[in-house]
Specification:
Layout (H helix, E strand, L loop, with lengths): L2 E2 L4 E5 L3 H13 L3 E5 L2 H10 L4 E5 L10 H11 L8 E5 L4 H10 L4 E4 L5 H15 L7 E2 L3 H15 L6 H15 L5 E9 L5 E9 L2 E2 L3 E7 H15 L9 E7 L3 E8 L8 E2 H7 L2 H15 L1 H5 L5 E4 H8 L8 H9 L9 E4 L4 E4 L1 H5 L6 E4 L1 E4 L8 E3 L5 E3 L6 E4 L2 H14 L5 H12 L16 H22 L5 H18 L4 H5 L5 H17 L1
Parallel strand pairs: 2-3, 2-4, 4-5, 5-6, 7-8
Antiparallel strand pairs: 1-7, 8-9, 9-10, 9-11, 11-13, 12-13, 14-20, 15-18, 16-17, 19-22, 20-21
Helix pairs in contact: 2-3, 6-7, 10-17, 12-18, 15-17, 15-18, 16-17, 16-20, 17-18, 18-20
């Protein structure tokens, strides 16, 4: 069973009965769903509570020759974030050239139409068709079975992050519009899979059918409009010209009032043939994973690192706190630790653990010392959120990247550090605190990229696998710095200091707090941070 997109929804703002009755008849005959507002306040209420594809606005909405409420409504359209999203057509019987220029040039109206008897309705209908086409609205696409339900799921995901937003059923038309714009000209659309994102977004695997046949499968990400705009800008500045042609990710965008949509297409790769790094990790050997990571960092991301800055003294603490949006929340990490340990005091020099029974340096007390984290640092373009779900792969281990919301110049080792924490605290699975501590101490003692990995007896296979993968990951990171910093001890210090900040960041991430099986790993992250501090100290 297939299901169509909604009909074009028009808001008609007109106070004269003989005009709006005539227009309603013509518009409904054209297949438009029309909502009438006969005064400014009613129109404003409709704009703030309902979803429309186009508005037809009369200039004068009151029995007053000086009234220009329609022009004020245009200003509200911009304030509500609808300019560039919902085209507006102005109709009037009192138009002047100055008024037309103001509406078109300053207030963003698509057309200014004078109500000439017998003529303007034809002009208005033509203007509606042109405007809807210009804004790439699609109303003829059919949903293949199950697609409509996945769109409803997506609306739930978005609304869960933004409870003050419209209800999910009111967000569904916006999601439909985004898909219509991103797949403009397609006949049918099937959504095969849907994944919840980590920050109120969701990702779809979409399969369009075009008039001439089946199209390439693609990945679509839908989330907050402002975040989508940021990702689009980051892509243009830091990604588009830097990824190699064979593994490039191309990006298309579309927007509604609240939402933005990103369409990812991959050179030489169908979306349906991809797996994420999590799946690849679970089903491949450490050697295969290491080879894939080597290719990712030396090929896919190569130009990012070639454009690195010369080393300069910076506080890695301050750099990472800014990267994690914690600069203006100085007590956030302390509050997160307190949620685990109500008696915690960030001023204490030591922190104790029951399993394993050990007392270690208090990470937040250790970080408070400026001299602990200031060192020569290189910056380069980094992905900024290099966790497993943002690395798409084929079975051969070739990589394509998505989600560039946090992509900009940052600590050159940031992506290595974020991927290591994702492996240890999410991909590896459950370990006892004792086994986790043995794994962490083994990794902390790695001091050189060519140092053999000596694993303790009895370490679970999942931990052994993680150790080998992380050892290879660190080798890639250290070799990146080898030409800049020949002192391997200082390379280790820089990596571990960044890793300390990345590990503490685990404590604040929502999915570690809300997902039952991940909650115990926050305590492991605190243990890991304290062990790192002991090594650095």
């Amino acid at each position: 069973m297939s299901q169509h997109f909604q009909h074009p929804r028009l808001l008609l703002v007109e106070d004269e009965p003989h005009v709006y009755l005539t227009l309603q008849r013509y518009l409904k005959n054209e297949g438009y769903a029309v909502t009438l507002a006969t005064d400014y306040q009613a129109a404003y209420t409709q704009l703030t509570t309902q979803h429309f594809h186009l508005a037809i606005i009369d200039v004068r909405l009151a029995d007053d020759e000086t009234d220009q409420s329609g022009m004020q409504l245009l200003r509200e359209v911009e304030r509500l974030g609808l300019r560039g999203v919902m085209p507006c057509l102005i109709i009037t019987a009192i138009g002047t050239k100055a008024m037309a220029l103001q509406a078109l040039q300053k207030l963003g109206a698509e057309r200014f139409i004078e109500k000439e008897p017998g003529l303007y309705i034809t002009e208005l209908l033509d203007a509606i068709r042109v405007a809807l086409g210009k804004y790439r609205f699609s109303f003829g696409i059919e949903y293949v079975v199950g697609t409509a339900h996945k769109i409803e799921q997506g609306a739930q995901y978005v609304r869960s992050e933004e409870p003050s937003w419209p209800l999910p059923e009111q967000l569904v038309p916006q999601i439909e519009d985004l898909l219509g714009k991103l797949f403009y000209g397609a006949n049918r659309l099937w959504i095969d899979k849907i994944y919840a994102g980590l920050s109120g977004s969701f990702v779809l695997e979409a399969h369009p059918t075009w008039p001439t046949g089946l199209g390439q499968s693609m990945i679509v990400k839908i989330g907050r409009r402002d975040k989508t705009r940021t990702e689009e800008e980051n892509y243009q500045h830091h990604v588009e010209h830097f990824l190699p042609a064979r593994h490039a990710t191309h990006l298309s965008t579309a927007y509604t009032r609240h939402l933005g949509g990103l369409l990812y297409t991959f050179v030489e790769m169908e979306a349906e043939d991809t797996i994420n790094f999590n799946t690849f990790y679970q089903h491949h050997t450490p050697q295969q994973i290491g080879a894939a990571l080597h290719y990712l960092f030396t090929n896919t991301c190569r130009l990012w690192y070639q454009g690195r800055t010369p080393p300069d003294y910076e506080s890695l603490r301050d750099l990472y706190l800014a990267a994690f949006n914690l600069s203006h929340q100085p007590d956030r990490l302390a509050r997160e630790i307190t949620s685990l340990r109500p008696e915690y005091d960030s001023h204490d020099t030591l922190i104790s653990f029951a399993a394993p029974a050990v007392t270690l340096p208090n990470p937040l007390h250790w970080l408070a010392r400026d001299e602990a984290t200031v060192m020569p640092v290189c910056r380069s373009i980094t992905h900024g959120d290099l966790q497993a779900d943002n690395i798409l792969m084929n079975e051969a281990g070739e990589c394509w990247l998505i989600d560039f919301y946090r992509t900009y110049r940052s600590h050159i080792l940031r992506d290595f550090i974020e991927l290591e924490t994702d492996i240890k605290f999410r991909l590896m699975g459950d370990l006892t605190p004792e086994d986790f501590a043995r794994l962490e101490e083994t990794l902390i003692n790695l001091q050189h990229p060519d140092q053999a990995l000596a694993l303790p007896d009895g370490l679970p296979e999942t931990a052994q696998k993680a150790a080998h993968v992380i050892s290879g990951l660190r080798t890639e990171a250290w070799r990146l710095l080898d030409a800049i910093q020949p002192n391997v001890r200082l390379i280790q210090r820089e990596y571990l200091t960044g890793l300390l900040l990345g590990t503490l960041n685990i404590l604040r991430l929502r999915h570690y707090k809300e997902t039952t099986e991940l909650q115990p790993r926050r305590e492991l992250a605190l243990l890991s941070a304290a062990l790192i501090c002991r090594q650095l100290q």
